Amino acid sequence: MSDVKKTALVLGGTGLVGGICLRQLLESGHYDQVVAVTRRKLQLAHSHLRNIVSDFSDIEELMSGVTVDDVFCCLGTTIKKAGSREAFEYVDYELPITFARTALAYGARQFLLVSALGANADSFVFYNRVKGRLEKELIALKFPRTVILRPSLLDGEREELRFAETASLWAFKCAAPLLGRMLSGVKPVKANSVASCLVTEAQREMAAGEAVLRIDSEAISRY
Questions:
Q1: What is the pTM for the complete model shown?
Q2: Quick check: is 1 in a domain?
Q3: Is the pLDDT of residue 210 over 90?
Q4: Average pLDDT over residues 8-35
Q5: What's the CATH code of the domain at 41?
Q6: Could you tell me if residue 122 is inside a domain?
C-alpha cells in the first residue's frame, strides 16, 4: 500500500475486536482520519478520530459526507443478544453489505471483514449461512481488494458476559493439552491477533492478481 495518508472507516468500534482495531489504527500513523460509526458515543479521544453516532437508519445519507479509503468491518452479535434471527441477520449481514455497497460507491478501495470459521452460504447452520452469504455478496461487489478473516472463537475481555462463549473457551483450554494439533485449526484466537491482522493486512502490498484474500484462524493467531 502507498504511504500516502488515508481515511479508515471502522464499523463495530464498540465491540471486542473493533475496539482494539480502532485503537491500533489510531496509533499506526497510517491514516489522517479514522472514522468510527457507532450507536453510542465512544469513550475515546484522539486527534485523528471522528466518531459518528448513528442509529444506522439511513446509511447512504450518513456516508454522503465521508470520504473513505479502507473499511474495517467488525460488526457482529449473537442471536441471543439480538433477540431473533431477523435481528441477528440485520447486524451481521444487512448492515455490513449496505455499508460495503455505499462505501464502494463513494470510492473505497478495500474492505476488510471479520467473518467466522465455518462461514458457508450453503450451510445448514443459520449462523454460518448468514456469514457465508455476506462473504459471497461482498466478493461480488468487486472491491479492488477484499480481505476476509475467518477466526474461531474469540478470546478476550468483553464488556458484556457471553456465557456460551465463556463456557466454550473454558472447554477448549481444558481439551487443548490432550488433543494438541487436532484442535489447531479451531482453537480460540486472541481478539488482539484478529485486530492486528486487520491493521497489518490493510497496509500490505497486494500480490499479483490478489483481489480477494481469505485468512483462516490458525494464520490469524500468528499476528
A1: 0.88
A2: no
A3: no
A4: 97
A5: 3.40.50.720
A6: yes
| Rounded Cα–Cα distance for residues 199 and 201 (Å) | 6
| Residue 35 reports pLDDT greater than 50 | yes
Q: What is the pLDDT of residue 156?
A: 74
Return the active site residues: 127, 131
Q: What are the distances in angstroms from CA 24 to CA 51, 130, 150?
A: 16, 28, 20
Cell 485468512, residue? 215
Q: Which residue range forms the structural domain that includes residue 64?
A: 6-154+190-217
Set of cell numbers at residue 199: 491493521
pLDDT, averaged across the chain: 89
Distances from the Cα of 186 to the Cα of 16, 94, 175, 182, angstroms? 19, 27, 12, 9
How remote is the C-alpha of 215 from its chain's centroid?
Answer: 12
Q: How far apart are CA 101 and CA 55, in angstroms?
A: 18
Query: 186: which DSSP letter?
Result: T
Number of domains in the chain: 1
Asked if residue 46 belongs to a domain, the reply is yes
Single-letter code of the amino acid located at 191: A
At 39, is the pLDDT very low, low, confident or very high (cuts 50, 70, 90)?
very high
Which amino acid type is present at position 29?
G
Q: Which helix (H) or strand (E) holds 190?
A: strand 189-190
Q: Does residue 161 belong to any structural domain of this protein?
A: no
- 92 pLDDT band, cuts 50/70/90, is very high
Number of Cβ atoms within 10 Å of the Cβ of 207: 7
Is the Cβ–Cβ distance between 110 and 147 less than 8 Å? yes
Amino acid 159: pLDDT: 59
